[in-house]
Amino acid sequence: MKHIRQLVKDSLGMTPQPVNSIETHLREAAEWLLRAQAGTPDDGVAHSYNVQTRSWAASYPETTGYVIPTLLEYAKYYDAPRFKEAALKMTDWECDIQMEDGGVRAGTMDAPIVAPTIFNTGQALFGWAKAYQDTGSERYKQSLIRASDWLVDAMDDDGAWRRFASPFTTSKLNSYNTRTAFGLVRAAQALGNDERYLAAAVKNVEWALSRAEPNGWLPDNCLLARDNKAALTHTIAYSIRGLLEVGVATGRDQFVEHALGMAKHVAKLQRADGALNALYLPNWETCVKWSCVTGNSQMAINWLRLAQITGDKSLIEHAKRANRFNMSIQDIATDDLNVRGAMKGSHPINGEYIKWRYPNWATKFFMDGLMLEQQFDRIDNIG
Predict the structure, then answer these.
(1) What is the average pLDDT value for the chain, to the nearest integer?
(2) I want to staple 183 with a disulfide (CB 3.0 to 4.6 A). Which of 26, 86, 122, 337 is the partner?
């Protein structure tokens, strides 16, 4: 019944709590990520905690990959070495489970199909790149190279990734793979600006933009199967970040401008409470009332990065409002350590995205958004 009580509280607007300091919210989130790691029999991070079944899901290679840089950054800034230790255990685990061809498997570790997939491999690059930069480990370097080479070799001549789509999603041709291109940028930077990886990243973004609508909308940009061609703020934000960071790394101003235009469309419909409705239509209108919590944090990151890069300071307030909303729905008072400090997939909790669960990546991006706000003039390398 606990999940029903949570739904009632969310639906009646009873969830918001007093907002504490950024440090307090970050600490609770970081502690939950370590509990999510401890919730599985290996050193990966559990996909999510399910309040309906009161159980942890198996480790998720994709998002464990980008939890690593978040915890490494947190450990460094707050002088908290046990978070670095946990992150490096995750990195070693990612090396252990990397597939022979260099790819990273789709789904969780108990998934019925074991197959490499493009997006998951791209997200693992963030962890290997950051861990290699921080430690100089040859093992991390070799995993990073193998995965990056696999991605480049899997790319079609026009810059799209059509092969090795996840067997667990309905979307097979994805604009949000610009986030994978961003992973190649991080790999290139860690390895001394490898031109092959940077060129592949540019090629993918060029392909994605070649399909854009005149209003900036990117098609095939959602994980959910919907007839109205709507896209989640989660995947819209993935694609924006990819355009932005590939553009910055390679001096393509047009990529940055397109990212800015998309981000401003999203900002126009930010709610008074700071949240975003979860789904946007191709005309940049919304079509649902629930919020994708991960998307709120990701857009906060995008707005802050765009403010850093373009000098458009008007975006900072949008980011702060999104962060404050998510801070208000993070439960840091409950005695239930399975959810204390974590972020939901949807608000209310029965929304269409990761229903009834607290996915690890919602908490990861929440931390990234808060750290970027807190250290606005310093951080530019969070994945």
Answers:
(1) 94
(2) 122
What's the CA gap between 163 and 173, in Å, rounded?
A: 9
What are the two backbone dihedrals, phi and then psi, of residue 190, each rounded to the nearest 5 degrees? -65, -30
For the chain, what is the domain count? Answer: 1
CA distance 61 to 122: 11
Are the C-beta atoms of residues 305 and 380 closer than 8 Å to each other?
yes
pLDDT of 9:
57
17 domain-assigned: no
pLDDT classification of 228: cutoffs 50, 70, 90:
confident
What number of helices (H) and strands (E) belong to the chain?
A: 13, 9
Tens of pLDDT, residue by residue over 250-260, are 999 999 999 99
pLDDT tens sequence across 122-149: 999 999 999 999 999 999 999 999 999 9
Residue 229 region, left (φ>0) first, then alpha (ψ -120 to 50), else beta? left
DSSP state string for 240-302: HHHHHHHHHHHT-HHHHHHHHHHHHHHHHT--TTS---SEE-TTS-B--SSEEHHHHHHHHHH
Tokens encoding 59: 């480790």
- In the three-class reduction of DSSP (H, G, I as helix; E, B as strand; rest coil), residue 357 is classed as strand
List the domain range (segments joined by +) for residue 242: 2-6+24-374
| Residue 18 domain-assigned (yes or no) | no
Taking Cα atoms as reference points, which of 23, 16, 26, 60 lies closest to residue 354? 60
Categorize the per-residue pLDDT at 172 as very low, low, confident or very high, splitting at 50, 70 and 90. confident
DSSP string, 85-99: HHHHHHHHHHHHH--
Mean pLDDT check: name the lowest of 79-83, 123-127, 162-166, 321-325: 162-166
CATH of the domain at 282: 1.50.10.10
Q: Phi-psi region for residue 273, left (φ > 0), alpha (ψ -120 to 50) or beta?
A: alpha
The length of the chain, given as a count of residues:
383
